[in-house]
Amino acid sequence: MKRIFVFALWGLLISSSDASAQTQDDLFNGDVLHEIRIYIAPQDYATFKQTNFTCEDQDIEALQGQVISPLPRVICWFPIEFHWKFNGKDITLPQVAIESHGKGSRNNIKPSFKIDFSRYESRLTFLGLRYVILRANAQDPSQIHERVAMEFFRRLGIPAPRESHARLYINDQYAGAYTIVEYVDPVFIQKNLGESNGYLYAYEWTFPWVFNDLGTDSSQYSPLPFKPENNLTYFDPSPVPYMIQAINHTPDAQFSAGLAAYMDVNAWIREIAAEEFINEQDGILGDYGLDNFFLYRFENSVRYTVLPWDKSDAFWTPADRDIYHNFLTNVLTTRIIAAAPDLIALFQDDVRQAAAIAGGPGGWLEQEIAKEYAQIRQAVYDDPNKLCDPGATGVLRPCSNDQFDAEVAYMLQFAETRSAIVLGQLPEH
């Protein structure tokens, strides 16, 4: 490898100025198939693969308060040189940090990565971003579930991460087609919610949980399953149980008002409606309990809103799935059905809007799927490392070009028929 990894503040600042002519919108421009190159010392990449799964385990153990070992913790971050090829320019950051990303999709054949632009120099950002995810889409044969879903959410008015596709090269070897994903952090919160001094949590699946009452002790809810992402010095999860108590114990007659005291109800209902429309298998009403979202408590408030994350399991089942799928397996939606006709009406209105945005044959959803497929097709065909997990067995296997084409064909059929099926399940408006 030709690259020499040295820390140089002067070089970092020069690289940052080189990127100043570009913007975040350029990086997440969905009309462009980007090119990302990263250079990592071979010995570091070997260590990365040796410790990949240990890193995930030790993070969870630390959050659970377990003593991992008397030895020092395994190092999970590694220095890399980062290149983004854009409009004929090679925009370079000579030393940023990389770690593995993902849970069930974690692997050493085609890993996902979290890039931290500020780890070695706190003043350094890339286009104003501290982090991006390079998602390998290792459980998704189509490679586009996630990006299509997030674009759909944004069209519904839901603050969702921006995404674009790229060819990724590691030490000049083609590693495959990846998705560049905007990370949900204080930068994202400020841009989308107009503030960032509240409390942000990533939901970390540790056991099947569906908003059932775990008591009034906040330690039952955080740092797991609600993993703090900011304000770590002034970590304060004490209001989390208020929301859970309101979901479980507010009397029927006051249920909607009781929820509104602790939840941005419109945001939660719209998120659920969007997930139900796209047949999300692993979200708020997922088949394994709650998963894949961020929780944000507004500054000087006890109210929480929800933000989507990781929609690689969207479009999971055929288009004829019931829009109330798993409503009766989750405490929140079970109580909504029993006690809140106003919130059911709101859900139905949001689903109608989702159907209108998606359209039917030739509608927006079908066009977006076709556009992304055409854009990444050759990059995926060339991908030597693509993986998938048909049937969600938990075992990743090599994925063929035929599987890629077949999954996209299935998505196109979903897009043609889902809206009409959904509208047929709703009462007349």
Attribute tags:
disordered N terminus, alpha+beta, 429 residues, 36% helix, seven-stranded mixed β-barrel, 12 helices, four-stranded antiparallel β-sheet
Number of helices, where a helix is a run of at least 4 consecutive DSSP H or I residues: 12
**What's the number of domains?**
2
As laid out across the biggest beta sheet, the strand order is 1-2-3-4-5-7-6
| H-E string | HHEHEEEEHEEHEEHHHEEHHHEEH
Largest sheet: 7 strands, mixed, barrel
Strand-residue proportion: 15-25%
Radius of gyration: 22 Å
Number of strands: 13
Structural class: alpha+beta
Low-confidence stretches: 1-17
Helix content: 25-40%
Mean of pLDDT: 93
Gap between N and C termini: 64 Å
| Overall geometric form | globular
Note the topology.
Elements: H1 9-18, H2 24-27, E1 34-39, H3 42-63, E2 78-86, E3 89-101, E4 112-116, E5 131-135, H4 145-155, E6 163-170, E7 173-182, H5 186-193, E8 199-203, E9 226-228, H6 240-249, H7 255-260, H8 265-277, E10 293-297, E11 304-308, H9 331-339, H10 341-358, H11 364-382, E12 387-388, E13 397-398, H12 401-425
Helix pairs in contact: 8-10, 10-12, 11-12
